[in-house]
């Protein structure tokens, strides 16, 4: 099978040194394996995505010396495909509508009997307020968020959940998933938001499968989310790619670079006269 990987930035801000590291690592791995490097635009969150950022992404990556097959896959064009997958999960009885706001979840999760609010790879762990006792029947609603009933989803698995990791998680973890910890440690993740058609977790899994990605190369900040992706692959009968989570580029204080961190934007270095080789050197490549 041809080695295929992708870099999937969200056009919600400038690319910084951390993105350059991720894109160059994926690109170099594909080159070494005589494979394919795809660029994908993760613009599922249309409220935050901007065409100007997308143009800047293309420009910065070309400047870094990267190339990729066109046309580029853009999530905003693929909502019907994501809906198909949601319908399948709905028909399996694994989804339920949720109308809780963030504030509702925070309040319910921090109620005295619940103890402190717990965070998982999908943010605050959902306390289950809207979870029905039996799977909902009838048409899949489109006017509310849809959550995956984690316990019910895990109960359908007939084989252990594992994946192959050639990098490592932030604490040296490899591809071992503890499904028994997922209801408490991950919770009922959102797979469709009312304003967004599909969540990151659902769209990334469908896109990787449709593009026949064999190697997902990305930062360790997404390591914990991988258990959700592998679970969705199993439920939807999709292949699980190999994963390579790499370390994060940090600033001088050891803090992870953020999209807002304009000071380390590739654009800023370019304006100051840096070359692509300087960028590679700065990030240790
Ligand atoms: N779009 C995601 C991000 O900007 C990356 C998704 C992925 O590589 O799985 O962090």
TrEMBL record:
Biased composition (Polar residues): 173-182
BP GO terms, sorted: glutamyl-tRNA aminoacylation
Keyword annotations from UniProtKB, A to Z: Aminoacyl-tRNA synthetase, ATP-binding, Ligase, Metal-binding, Nucleotide-binding, Protein biosynthesis, Zinc
Residues in Glutamyl/glutaminyl-tRNA synthetase class Ib catalytic domain copies: 4-108, 182-283
UniProt signal peptide: none
UniProt KW Zinc keyword: yes
Keyword Cell membrane: no
Region annotation Disordered: where it falls in the sequence: 162-182
InterPro entries, A to Z: aa-tRNA-synth_I_CS, Glu/Gln-tRNA-synth, Glu/Gln-tRNA-synth_Ib_cat-dom, GluQ/Sye, Rossmann-like_a/b/a_fold
UniProt GO molecular function: ATP binding; glutamate-tRNA ligase activity
Gene Ontology cellular component terms for the protein in this record: cytosol
Alphabetized Pfam families for the sequence: tRNA-synt_1c (PF00749)
NCBIfam families per UniProt: PRK05710.1-4
Family: Belongs to the class-I aminoacyl-tRNA synthetase family.
Protein name: Glutamyl-Q tRNA(Asp) synthetase
Native source species: Roseovarius lutimaris
Lineage: Bacteria, Pseudomonadati, Pseudomonadota, Alphaproteobacteria, Rhodobacterales
